[in-house]
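Inputs:
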Amino acid sequence: MATAAAQFENIDTIPLDEINVANPYLFQNDTVGEYFARLRREDPVHFCRESRFGPYWSVTKFNDIIAVDTNHKVFSSEAKLGGIAVQDMHGVEGALELEMFIAMDQPKHDQQRKAVSPVVAPSNLLLLEPIIRERAGAILDELPVGEEIDWVKLVSVELTTMTLATIFDFPWEERAKLTRWSDVTTASPETGIVESFEQRREELIQCAMYFKGLWDQRVNNPGGNDLISMMAHSPATRDMPFLEFLGNLLLLIVGGNDTTRNSISGGVMALNQNPEEYRKLRENPALVSSMIPEIIRWQTPLTHMRRTALEDAIIGGKQILKGDKVVMWYLSGNRDDTVIDRADEFIIDRENPRHHLSFGFGIHRCMGNRLAELQLRIVWEEILKRFSFVEMVGEPERLLSNLVRGITRLPVKLHAH
Amino acid sequence: MIKVTFVSADGVRRTVEADEGLSAREAALFNSVPGIDGDCGGVCACATCHVHVDDAWIERVGLPEEGSMESDLIQFAEGTTATSRLACQIPMATELDGLILHLPELQH
């Protein structure tokens, strides 16, 4: 923290080449936005020569990010080249080397994505909606009114875990396991979630064994529309090697868990910090539909995706060399006021709210985006029915991570109508 | 002005007019045709403007090139057919006056 705080004091004078926006402490103390603002102004495609993640480029402007994201033939997601985060996926001693389609290139990426995407297709979501709504309502009905509670623990985590359990048709009483595995997948020892990479490995192997058990039950029962049945029966996934099976499951768990969890918390924070917007919402609950994409832009639950250049390329006038690590900072692009009007403001009825980077663009664009939007819409519709005000009554705490923009604690008090 | 008709999955027809050179996506958005979100801003990056070109028009409109960004994206879209295109990649031109595009089911 000391380092981050010291840097923050010099934010406008620190030499550009000493800026390292991947420092996870800048996300935990929520100062990274100031650095991004400076990079967008002074050096929008910025090279950090030295960091614990090695040298890397930061792409900070909206259109430059789209240029990288849509050029998958030059900018690779391949795990063996380092994968999709500024922290390389492979090569950490003791870590489990997972294989997931988000970190693959064509053609394998395409086959595997197509195999699992039907579970989040609009037609399947129609079937899920009433179940999610009923379960969400039950969670909200249990909450005590008028006393301080942790919104993250009692609502955001519960709701997303419940949705995930629904998609996997996971044994209901054991659904807390899903939350744990999601946290462990993105954890490194410094987060405190696991003590070592070996512990992470052990827990993920337990996760794999558990899912293997579910798989074995379902592989002989065709026709299930849960995710495990789909994977067990699709020709593209049914003979998957073990680490790929585990990797893709964890991808869907993390993809469907951490991200939406933090958008649920982030929405409460944003409305409390912008009381005028909360008032507009109360007076016109139909604004939920434009508020949801705005919350997702505002929160940007995944701060970045990383690529590796397969050949030399020019982005924003800078010469990228073959082999370079290129980080697309969605969190920064989502504050780029040359593309998004009043990008630093949270506006629930803004024009064109869907024009944001949080889901990425191109062939790796978020597969579960409709499910995320559906969950957020249901949650807010059900909140507005029950509570006049979800009041933030203390300082939120943030996750130590440069990838997941997480809120770990959010004290609130509920007010009934 | 070029006329283009969007037909929703439940058969509702909306005919709009657009200037030559605009895309079919813009023709839909500027006239608030439901079913076309166009999240990426029209740069062939998201497939939220997926349409099925009417059989009578597919020869004039053409299919996306194999291996192009457009065909890469279409493969992940919901409810694709042999005439699937992204509306942002169909420029309005005089030879397309009267074009008919069908909207996939459940595309917002």
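Chain A touches chain B through 21 residues (CB under 8 Å). Flag for discussion at group meeting.
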